[in-house]
Amino acid sequence: MQCGTCGHTEVRGATTTVEEWHAGKLYVVRDVPVERCPNCGEEYFAPAVMDALERLLDHPTNAEPVTAFALEYA
Ligand SMILES: [Zn+2]
Question: What percent of the chain has pLDDT above 70?
Answer without folding.
Answer: 100
